[in-house]
Amino acid sequence: MSKLSFRARALDAAKPLPIYRGKDMPDLNDCVSINRAVPQMPTGMEKEEESEHHLQRAISAQQVFREKKESMVIPVPEAESNVNYYNRLYKGEFKQPKQFIHIQPFNLDNEQPDYDMDSEDETLLNRLNRKMEIKPLQFEIMIDRLEKASSNQLVTLQEAKLLLNEDDYLIKAVYDYWVRKRKNCRGPSLIPQIKQEKRDGSTNNDPYVAFRRRTEKMQTRKNRKNDEASYEKMLKLRREFSRAITILEMIKRREKTKRELLHLTLEVVEKRYHLGDYGGEILNEVKINRSEKELYATPATLHNGNHHKVQECKTKHPHHLSLKEEASDVVRQKKKYPKKPKAEALITSQQPTPETLPVINKSDIKQYDFHSSDEDEFPQPRLDQANHSCENSELADLDKLRYRHCLTTLTVPRRCIGFARRRIGRGGRVIMDRISTEHDPVLKQIDPEMLNSFSSSSQTIDFSSNFSRTNASSKHCENRLSLSEILSNIRSCRLQCFQPRLLNLQDSDSEECTSRKPGQTVNNKRVSAASVALLNTSKNGISVTGGITEEQFQTHQQQLVQMQRQQLAQLQQKQQSQHSSQQTHPKAQGSSTSDCMSKTLDSASAHFAASAVVSAPVPSRSEVAKEQNTGHNNINGVVQPSGTSKTLYSTNMALSSSPGISAVQLVRTVGHTTTNHLIPALCTSSPQTLPMNNSCLTNAVHLNNVSVVSPVNVHINTRTSAPSPTALKLATVAASMDRVPKVTPSSAISSIARENHEPERLGLNGIAETTVAMEVT
Amino acid sequence: MAEVGEIIEGCRLPVLRRNQDNEDEWPLAEILSVKDISGRKLFYVHYIDSVNKRLDEWVTHERLDLKKIQFPKKEAKTPTKNGLPGSRPGSPEREVPASAQASGKTLPIPVQITLRFNLPKEREAIPGGEPDQPLSSSSCLQPNHRSTKRKVEVVSPATPVPSETAPASVFPQNGAARRAVAAQPGRKRKSNCLGTDEDSQDSSDGIPSAPRMTGSLVSDRSHDDIVTRMKNIECIELGRHRLKPWYFSPYPQELTTLPVLYLCEFCLKYGRSLKCLQRHLTKCDLRHPPGNEIYRKGTISFFEIDGRKNKSYSQNLCLLAKCFLDHKTLYYDTDPFLFYVMTEYDCKGFHIVGYFSKEKESTEDYNVACILTLPPYQRRGYGKLLIEFSYELSKVEGKTGTPEKPLSDLGLLSYRSYWSQTILEILMGLKSESGERPQITINEISEITSIKKEDVISTLQYLNLINYYKGQYILTLSEDIVDGHERAMLKRLLRIDSKCLHFTPKDWSKRGKW
């Protein structure tokens, strides 16, 4: 046979193989050499076992004889003879049902004891049976309960008495027997059980430990976000179920006790009857004796659901408690000491220290830990829920505080302004409502430094970290939250609202400072320029600083546009109904539109609007300069006019609005996230305060460094980081200044893209109108 | 001649054993353990004429041939319980001629085992190797060389004989890859898991990590220690039968000292004594496995048991099965498995004959995890019936399937036999149409039988049916193949009737985790 001179083609599983039989078969000699080209498939056995000689013998026997010879089988240990007592052991017969056997999935176990009596027990039972009747099953139940109630530690006799519902003598006898037997028993339990794994991993290699739990952390699929949500739901469900178990356990216990009581009462009555104790004399006698004895009562341990309960109380604390604590910490760090307007409280009284609150133990939360397949950190399931509820409750508090006047000082013109209350204006401006009290003359003389001295010590600690940035020279910013606090605040709020990056905050700080220091390179011009840029947030060319990339910004803008569109579409009908009136009464237009707008600005869009402003705080200088020149053009070119202009509008309103009480308006932009609940109030108040506009504006510019703190502010500060406040303020100022001479409302409208909806235009129109009105006055 | 007292673990000597033909023989055995029961010494011997541990047993000194004892070499003594792989404790160096002479009739053939690997290749295949393993020709004759061999498997599981064979592959498209996967089940999920990390684990500090969580069999014996190498249950009483376990099973340790472990025939609960069993039977009203009957024909029924829903039964079944399955692992819970229990009915109830388990979701196309016919029912066609049933389920599922690896020797024989008969049945049933030669593709065979393609090919090879003739592969059915098959089929009376199967497969992937 010559060596194979060609390479055999690979065997193709999809190619038909012709079958040759008997006489048709070609001479196998033609095939042999080629056969070697086909490698053997693995047998699937371990190699060493594969070559085992018994097996090889059996295989060759199979191959040679095509059937197994008796001697060629693999030897195995022989099975022993049949059990002759089988029929006595397995009594009765079982008739095969006609139907297939189908077991019910939730077949309630008829709670048979797992313990099986042995012959040793039987002798005891026989002995006991001489004195009283005890059935094997009864005995087994007793042992079963004792076994299951004791882990490493045996139950005590007292516990046993509570566990077992039997005669005292019997319990004693069985208990003693059980303790003895248990001591002699080699295994951990009289009920033989498979060794359980230990959590510490020490049993990982114990060959007798079997059926370990698959401790694979729950894996969520990348493409299925709702897995996490459902996981949370499962956790919640589990908690609730375990609570239900606890309750049921308690009920069960109660009912058992009741039954016990009934039985005992019955017994007592019976005994008394037998004794003829109709008058109750014997009973009283016995009672006196009894009371001298010490009553022992250990609650029987409930085995089911015990561990659930423990978890329960650990994880139950709602998160908002700790959040509140944070908030009050913030208050303490602030320099101004908000006071209740009670006369006797003059200067600084510390905020009532929060009661010591149970803190959530991290490790408790950890038990629900699971690893998301996504990279980003998954929030602790329950925290944000808690956040929601706490926000609501705090908002309620806020409402009360809003109408409270406090002793207030200003940082920049260092003086005490007496009692004032603070509100947040549109665009986050802080408006101080002052109130005159009899203490005013005294308060005016109070040295604000005195107030400061109380808190300055605590502030200096945070100071350095706060001011690692360029404007570290300005040492006058003590009234800021510590960086870590802000960070934690932001973190806690992250899910609820879009938050500007921290950089913005620092930007704003710096600007605040620079405006006070003329030597700095940044001047007012820049600030105003920046504000113009703010108006053009939609413009592509904006180079964004402060850590927000252009891309993010763009997508954000797009979202904003969409939201506005949706809103306006909803509004359409309303607007149209007002349409005629607006045209006939142009004066009323502003207010009506603004009313409308304020209603439609839901919180989400407000967030977006706010963040839109924030997202472009400091554009590059050259660009700013250019935009200043072409300010109105840019406005015309705004892609989503309503979005930007609404923000503008709201900031304007914030500037122009004043409270009913005549007071100085101190404006400081604080939190954009708060705009949502503040806008409505401001909008409504705007029309009547228009005349004051000019003074307000100037005030705003001059006093932009004034920072005011009231309880309200505290709350807001906890969840925001301030964007450049001056930028915002000046934006409105500059915008209005720039615009008014050049742009008439009508031209503004006309330049809006034609495809825009009618109401949208109207909305803009309204804004333009009000702006004009403002300027005119 | 040594004294009985001198016999320690690791000694090797011929031990008297009676073979199937009732003849005495003196195979060489190794002492694995010595125990003293009321002054009488008992020795646990592992017969080294076989890798298998089935026949290992406790013997008295009368059965030991003390004249030919070999004491373990001191330096060869390895720690026994550190979980190191392949640490066959205290195996002495083996001198082949001496043992051949000593072992009498049954010649151990370790030479064959090891010579299939030629040495340089082997070293190549083991990155790092074992430093204490001398690179000498004698080393390949050591029985404790098996650790090295195991590593070879891990690294190149698909090529049993790396030195020979031309590289003409049967299945160029996916053959090698698939086989590698099959030999290393459960590993392909881990992305960065190279074949070599097994080695680094093994050789570094001897702390084996937890085994893989899929599947039911251990393919590497890194957890093999002296405890699991010895049977721990003397005897099991199950219904009418008394069974002699073959392997270790993790029944509660306090029960291992009992002469007989009593099992309830229907719920498989274990008890200390006959009295316990008696008492148990007054409380246990089961007369069939606690699952749904999905097949019944005549007296044969199949019950489906969910390893998650019926934990205690599943665990008891696994404990019993472990007594007869060497590679089975009980490391993890039974949740991801279904158990199909075959029973035979008589007036007392449905008696368990055998079972197979099956992963609810298998990533490796396994349709059987563990499969066992209980010893009293072995060699009567029940094993083939179990296998047939497992493929019947796969047919309903519309999938092809294969048993989880590694197969045991009996498993391989049974499966080969089933595959051969099933495939031959199809080939012989093919009629030539219009005078042309009948033909069939491997894929078609696979589809009809639900036997995985690789298994079809290996069977065709094993039967020597595939031949290369005139530029193409052909199947040849020789006379003796046909005759043998026909004779075998006459004996195969127990068959599965697919009409009697009432089974709807569940899509477990949609049910969350099992």
TrEMBL record, chain A:
Metal-binding is among the record's keywords: no
Pfam families named in the record: E_Pc_C, EPL1
Region (Disordered): 570-598, 615-643
Domain Enhancer of polycomb-like N-terminal per the UniProt entry, residue ranges: 7-148
UniProt feature, compositional bias: Polar residues: 584-598, 627-643
Recorded superkingdom: Eukaryota
BP-aspect Gene Ontology terms: chromatin organization; regulation of transcription by RNA polymerase II
Keyword Cell division: no
Localization in the cell: Nucleus
Coiled coil regions, renumbered to chain: none
Keywords (A to Z) from UniProt: Chromatin regulator, Nucleus, Transcription, Transcription regulation
Low complexity: bias regions: 570-583
InterPro entries with a match to the protein in the record: Enhancer_polycomb, Enhancer_polycomb-like_N, Enhancer_polycomb_C
Domain Enhancer of polycomb C-terminal: 548-777
Annotated protein name in UniProt: Enhancer of polycomb homolog
From TrEMBL, chain B:
Gene3D superfamilies: 2.30.30.140, 3.40.630.30, N-acetyl transferase-like, Winged helix-like DNA-binding domain superfamily/Winged helix DNA-binding domain
Active site (record annotation): 404
Principal EC category: transferase
Keywords carried by this UniProt record: Acetylation, Acyltransferase, Centromere, Chromatin regulator, Chromosome, DNA damage, DNA repair, Growth regulation, Kinetochore, Metal-binding, Nucleus, Transcription, Transcription regulation, Transferase, Zinc, Zinc-finger
Residue ranges of every copy of the MYST-type HAT domain listed in the record: 228-505
InterPro entries, A to Z: Acyl_CoA_acyltransferase, Chromo-like_dom_sf, Chromo/chromo_shadow_dom, HAT_MYST-type, MYST_HAT, Tudor-knot, WH-like_DNA-bd_sf, Zf-MYST
Zinc-finger recorded as keyword: yes
Subcellular location: Chromosome, Centromere, Kinetochore; Cytoplasm, Cytoskeleton, Spindle pole; Nucleus
EC number: 2.3.1.48
Stretches the record annotates as Disordered: 70-107, 123-221
Family matches, as CDD domains: CBD_TIP60_like, NAT_SF
Catalytic activity: (S)-lactoyl-CoA + L-lysyl-[protein] = N(6)-[(S)-lactoyl]-L-lysyl-[protein] + CoA + H(+); L-lysyl-[histone] + acetyl-CoA = N(6)-acetyl-L-lysyl-[histone] + CoA + H(+); (2E)-butenoyl-CoA + L-lysyl-[protein] = N(6)-(2E)-butenoyl-L-lysyl-[protein] + CoA + H(+); 2-hydroxyisobutanoyl-CoA + L-lysyl-[protein] = N(6)-(2-hydroxyisobutanoyl)-L-lysyl-[protein] + CoA + H(+)
Ribosomal protein is among the record's keywords: no
Gene Ontology BP annotations: aggrephagy; apoptotic process; attachment of mitotic spindle microtubules to kinetochore; cellular response to estradiol stimulus; cellular response to glucose starvation; cellular response to glucose stimulus; DNA damage response, signal transduction by p53 class mediator; DNA double-strand break processing
Cellular component GO terms held in the UniProt record: cytosol; kinetochore; mitotic spindle pole; NuA4 histone acetyltransferase complex; nucleolus; nucleosome; piccolo histone acetyltransferase complex; site of double-strand break
A molecular-function term among this protein's GO annotations: chromatin binding
Polar residues bias (residue ranges): 134-145
Family to which the UniProt record says this protein belongs: Belongs to the MYST (SAS/MOZ) family.
UniProt-recorded name of the protein: Histone acetyltransferase KAT5
Annotated source species: Macaca fascicularis (Crab-eating macaque)
